[in-house]
Amino acid sequence: MIDVHTHLWDPAISPQYMADYFQKKKEAGKEIRMTAEELLAHMDRNGIQKAIVLTLAFHSMMTNLELKTLHSYTAEQVKKSKGRLVAFFTVNPFEDNVMEYVEKYTEKDKFVGLKLHPNIQEFFPDDERLRNIYKYLEEKRIPVLFHTGGIGLSGIRDCFGNLDAIDHIACEFPELPIIMGHAGRIDYRRTAELLRKHPNVYADISTNFSRLHGKEWLMLKELMEIVKIWCGNTEKLLFGSDYPFYSQDQTTEIVRDFTKHNELFTVLERSDVDALMNKNAELFCEKYKLWRMKE
Questions:
Q1: DSSP β-bridge partners for residue 51
Q2: Residue pLDDT, tens place only, 129-148
Q3: Which is higher by pLDDT, 75 or 151?
Q4: How far apart are CA 235 and CA 272, in angstroms?
Q5: pLDDT at 294
Q6: Which residues pair with 179 in a beta bridge?
Q7: What residues does 146 pair with on adjacent strands?
Q8: In 196-215, which positions are buried (b, 16+ CB within 10 angstroms) versus exposed (e)?
Q9: Domain named Amidohydrolase-related: which ranges (predicted)?
Q10: DSSP-assigned states of every residue in 23-79
Q11: Beta bridge partners of 113
Q12: How far apart are CA 136 and CA 89, in angstroms?
């Protein structure tokens, strides 16, 4: 089992809005330490063998020089995992020397993918100025994971997570491996359309949960059903948790709770949920050699 969507950073440098978010969790008895040891403990509890750690920019003005601090912490934590963790880097794509950072992180520092958060970084991902980055990643078969859909935080503009941009990128760079983080929540029909249309576009299921107590799995059910109806299968849906924003305990519990309601399955089968948990992400990582790239 592989979790394709986790984050680690030094909490001492968290921006205020993130510090406030985790303070509320702490007050609710859910203190989370953002270290490899803590993440691995969560993984062990949930039968997760490996995970991808995504470096996350905190705001739109972070320079590539400032982002080096985040990458150093991520790399340090990944080294402690004895091969169970690999990392994606991030960049401010609009600096003149951005390709120097892209090449350094992928070739020298052995980051195995790129994470971009258009909503927080405030850009449309199909901006022409990113073409050289995508061309380089496509040639190297290095994946890029975009935050897609809404983020749900006041003050952060969700227009930048529109899925049309993913279609534009995938049309121009058809061999570029793309993961739509959060599966474009909650534009599931558009998500399904892109999964069917583009062979190298995938989606992770992280944070697609209802707020109805006892029925948190409803949104996941809707996502999986729409994808299966349109694509014929759910093979391109990958397991992801968005740790530490959502715990792996919570994510796996909701997915497993879903399987208790077999009477609600229409087009879905138990095997679709089993593959989501145990197969789809593994096949993706093998296809793009993510752990071998790290070696």
A1: 3, 85
A2: 999 999 999 999 999 999 99
A3: 75
A4: 8
A5: 62
A6: 145, 202
A7: 116, 180
A8: eebebbbbbbbbbbeeeeee
A9: 2-282
A10: HHHHHTT-----SHHHHHHHHHHTT--EEEEEP---STT--HHHHHHHHHHHHHHHH
A11: 88
A12: 14
Rounded CA gap, 108 and 67, in Å? 16
Distance CA 174, CA 11 (A): 37
- Domain range 2-294, CATH class: alpha beta
Under DSSP, the state recorded for 139 is: H
3-state secondary structure (DSSP) of residue 89: strand
pLDDT digits (tens, 9 = 90+) for 165-203: 999 999 999 999 999 999 999 999 999 999 999 999 999
Give the Cα separation of 270 and 257 in Å (integer).
12
Structure tokens at 29: 């008895």
Note whether 171 and 114 are within 8 A (CB). no
Q: What is the pLDDT of residues 250-292, one digit of tens each?
A: 999 999 888 888 777 789 998 999 999 999 999 999 999 999 8
b vs e for 105-115, b when ≥16 Cβ sit within 10 Å of the residue's Cβ?
Answer: bbeeeebbbbb
